[in-house]
From TrEMBL:
Name used for this protein in its record: peptide-methionine (S)-S-oxide reductase
Origin superkingdom: Eukaryota
Record bears the keyword Oxidoreductase: yes
Family that this chain belongs to: Belongs to the MsrA Met sulfoxide reductase family.
Amino acid sequence: MVSVAMGSFMHDVDVETKKATFAMGCFWEPDVLFGSYKGVIRTRVGYTGGTKKNPTYKSLGDHTEAIDVDYDPVAVKFEELLDVFWNNHDPSARMTRQYSSFIYYHDDDQKKSAESSLQERKAKGCVLTQIVPASEFYEAEGYHQKYRLQQHPWLVEAIGLVRNDQNSLVRSHVAARLNGYVFGRGGKEALEADIVRLGLNDEIAKYVRQYYVKFEGRGLVC
Ligand code: MHO
């Protein structure tokens, strides 16, 4: 087991969070979108919704690739996260179970908001998205967590993490944010604000800006 010094950088954030869980195709993309979104503290990608115990990427059974988001409900409303969900995949596409569209609600309020957003969306066309209660979430393998960040070994090391180390990559707030920024998501203003808020040094800031610009505006990837 790799042990990681989590003391420096803003890996841990001590605010009360709520969970939101979505499936919207390959989970790498939602990881960059939500990780760099306003009010999001942590993300993890994994498999959920099925019956198979301990699924893996290679042996998924009846599970679906999903993202589990810890958000600060004071900073962002669940309804905004629903907008990110609807606006960043095609809910009318007929997909295999692995890549199907689901909203997994955690309480009655989320269920109601999800249902009303579904009705609005249906007024615009076909929607295959299903709204179901959240069930056991199995974290994906280390190499899937913060996948875009992990394409930058220098940066992973610079923020004190270790590639493929599932636990620290899942837990780290700064990893969630940078995973989006290095893939051109999250917005330039949010990036600049986070450079200050997260206390990133000049070398790291320069590196992240460079990749933000490189990938900004690019389409989906997986
Ligand atoms: N195109 C990717 C999909 C990965 S996603 C996590 C691959 O070939 O592995 O399903």
